[in-house]
Amino acid sequence: MERGKFVNRVNFVLQSHEAVTLNKFIIRYDISGSDTRGYNEYTLRVDEVTQWLEYASAKKVPILELNFSPKYDESLSYPGLTCAFPHKFLTRSTSVDFKPLKALTLKFIDVNDEAIEFFLLNCPLLEELIVHESKELSNVEVCGSSLVLKRLEICYCRNLKLVRVSAPNLVSLTVQELEELILENVPMLVELSLPWGFGEISGEKLCDAISCCNLQLEVLTLKVLQNPKKGIELCEFPEMPRLKKLVVGYRAMNEESVDLLPYLISAAPYIHEFVLNLHSSCISTLKSITRFPHKQIKVVKFHGYSGHKIRIDLVSYFLENFVNLEKLIIDPRTFFFREQIPRISSVSIQTARSRANEELAAEIPDRVELVII
Fold first, then answer.
1. What is the pLDDT of residues 298-332, one digit of tens each?
2. The domain at 198-373 falls in which architecture?
3. In what order do the strands lie in the sheet with 162-166?
4. In the chain, domain spans
5. Residue 92: exposed, middle, or buried by beta-carbon count in 10 A (0-12, 13-18, 19+)?
6. 3 by DSSP, 3-state: which?
């Protein structure tokens, strides 16, 4: 839908709403549009976003979401596709009041470091902060002994250099596309999701960050973007004795990065669930990979299983090394790192499921339940 039509429809609804307060204020708009015309016809203007922020402030909303994500992942083709954030609006100290705010989501909108600082300082009840696809973030500090923040996500902000976090109540942290993460005073942090690879956090800095919370972590997600093996050899990956779930995602698996699997699994001796997310592979088969028997893993989920030889080899590896495995869950759909995914017909999905069942059913021992989703 073109910007003008969408804005008019939203504003009409807002003007018609007579309640003094709102429990939620959520606007979701496909910034990419639906055809090949100029993107200026779809990009929201600063004054339009300002008007919605004014409305949210006046209605004292506890949950605010401005989500301008493309419906399908247009950001891969148009990396600069974002809306401007009205930073001057936040300087109106007499009219801006976000004190009731508990959850804030901003996606595909160019919020900057100062705006993040504003919301942290002026929203004493803020428990959830999610920011995706901002070109203006560079050095983000989420620090304060009085913060009640429990969930923090800062993802796909292409100019982000550093995130520093000191938040005593933080439970879940997800960061993507950055060079350095510094964690201090995060005693409640049990869920951590990090990138790893070329242009991302180095192996040494990754280990340093995890070492700040390795004894308490319960869920760890690592998204491997390129070959990070060279960097990780320089440091010792910290053991995670309380980890229950390990998620490893590969954008492009190669001979070096596949060796990370036993390396990571050996650092988590008590995990119950292992998840592998595989978008693509640069190798056709597993030539050699360190064997590492693991007695505690009961459930394996494999997203991105396509039936290629490398995928079948990985399943065999799981069956051979996870000696007490009880359930193997196979998702044959192509795995995407981003939220936005292209259209996939139901016929293609059903075909992929049938093929996966034919390939694997005879290979799975009776002790393991095979589930194809």
1. 999 999 887 678 888 899 999 999 999 999 999 98
2. Alpha-Beta Horseshoe (3.80)
3. 139-143, 162-166, 180-183
4. 1-189, 198-373
5. exposed
6. helix
